[in-house]
C-alpha cells in the first residue's frame, strides 16, 4: 500500500454557511480529499421586530393553515425554535428538498403521523420550487390559508404561483441571509491554496453565494489569479447554480444530482485520478 505524501491531496473548497457543511467535509476528508471552508453566506435568526411579530402571529394560528411551506432547512430550524411546542398533526407541511424533510423528521414531523410533501428523489431529482409546485394540488388551496416560511429575499416563484391559484398566502421570514466579508484567516487559507500546486475544486450550492464569490474575486485578485480560480473545477447541484457559475467565469462545471451523497460521489470521481497519479510516482 502506498502512503500518500503531504501536499498532494486534492482540495475541495466548501462555500456553505459556517457549520452547514460539516458532514460533507468529514466524508471528503475520509476519502482523501482535503477541505477548505470558505463560507459565502451567513445565516442568522430573524431579528427584525416586525418580521418576528408576523412569524409569531402565524405560529399562534397554525391550525388555520391548509398548508405550511418551508423553503429550506434553515426555515424549518428557525421556525421550530420559535414555535416551542409540538407541530399539530392536522397541519400538512411542504418542503423543497430532503434536507428540509430531514430537519422536520428530527423534530418528529414525518409520516405516518404528519403529512409531509417533498419532491421525489432519484437520479434525475431536482429539489427546487418548480419540483415542489409539481407535487402540490394547487387548485385545492384556492380560498384557503397557506403559510410560506423563508429567509429574507429569495425567489418569488412559490409565492406568485400560490397566489395565482387563489391561495390566501401569508409570507413570513424566520431567518436572515447576508453575504459575509471573509476574515483574514479565511483569505490567507485561500491565498495559500491558490499559491500552491494543489488541484482544487469549488463546491457551489447557492446562486447568491456564487455571485458573491464573483464580486469578492474581482475586488481582490489580479487577472492571473482570477484565471486560476475560474480555471479550477466547479461542482454544483442545480442548473441555476451552474448558470451563475458560468456567468462568474467558471468553465469546468460539473452539475450532479442534488444531495450531499451525489456531491461526494462526484468529487470522489474527480479526485481518484489525481490521487492515483501521485500514488504511481
TrEMBL record:
Reactions catalysed, as given in the entry: hydroxymethylbilane = uroporphyrinogen III + H2O
Gene3D superfamilies: 3.40.50.10090
The EC number(s) this enzyme carries: 4.2.1.75
InterPro entries linked: 4pyrrol_syn_uPrphyn_synt_sf, 4pyrrol_synth_uPrphyn_synth, UROS/Hem4
Keyword Methyltransferase included in the entry's annotation: yes
Enzyme class: lyase
Keyword Lyase appears in the UniProt entry: yes
GO MF annotations, alphabetized: methyltransferase activity; uroporphyrinogen-III synthase activity
UniProtKB keywords: Lyase, Methyltransferase, Porphyrin biosynthesis, Transferase
UniProt record, GO biological process: methylation; protoporphyrinogen IX biosynthetic process; uroporphyrinogen III biosynthetic process
Domain Tetrapyrrole biosynthesis uroporphyrinogen III synthase: 24-254
Pathway: Porphyrin-containing compound metabolism; protoporphyrin-IX biosynthesis; coproporphyrinogen-III from 5-aminolevulinate: step 3/4
Domain of life: Bacteria
Family: Belongs to the uroporphyrinogen-III synthase family.
Role: Catalyzes cyclization of the linear tetrapyrrole, hydroxymethylbilane, to the macrocyclic uroporphyrinogen III.
Annotated protein name in UniProt: Uroporphyrinogen-III synthase
